[in-house]
Amino acid sequence: MITIYEEQRQGAVAHTVEHAQASLKKCLDVIRQMDGFTRSQVSIQHMDTMIMIGGGSHEFIVTVETSTAIHNLLGSQEEEDEFVDITVGGQACEFPRQYIVSLELVESALQQLLTDTSAELHWEIIEK
Predict the structure, then answer these.
(1) CA 95 – CA 83 distance, rounded (Å)
(2) What is the C-alpha separation between 51 and 69, in angstroms, rounded?
(3) What is the pLDDT of residues 14-52, one digit of tens each?
(4) What is the pTM assigned to this prediction?
(5) Backbone torsion region of residue 77, taken as left when φ is above 0, otherwise alpha when ψ lies between -120 and 50, otherwise beta
């Protein structure tokens, strides 16, 4: 079962819209609506896994939390000291460039996580 928690902001006020028993298609539709301002955070619960997507438009960050580890999707494999500003949940945050991914990588990650298909993705894994 998939549940989507979509944050929609109106100024400083945030409303969470819950989409119960969602599909992969619904997840992708909600993420495509993320603009990095009024919609900058989506969480997807699938079984015991929580998938968090921040940002919007053309720059995203994806974190997956399980009972044993935190997984950060990596976009660039190069060691870079550069940081990028992205809004997540209405807050401007700085993230290392290696965590910034495209919409296409977000879609590949969701297909892998929600449908058990294989994809050539790179993850940073932090054990709990």
Answers:
(1) 5
(2) 12
(3) 999 999 999 999 999 999 999 999 999 999 999 999 999
(4) 0.94
(5) alpha
Is residue 93 exposed (0-12), middle (13-18) or buried (19+ Cβ within 10 Å)? middle
DSSP strand pairing (13-19 vs 49-56): unpaired
Beta-bridged to residue 9, according to DSSP, are: 14
Place of tokens 């997956």: 64
CA–CA separation, 107 and 119 (whole Å): 10
Beta bridge partners of 19: 4
Yes or no: say if 15 and 8 are a contact pair by the CB < 8 Å rule: yes
Closest CA relative to residue 110, chosen from 42, 40, 15? 42
| Spatial contact of 49 and 110, defined as CB atoms under 8 Å apart | no
Name the amino acid, one letter, at 4: I
Task: Identify residue 29 by its one-letter amino acid code.
Answer: D
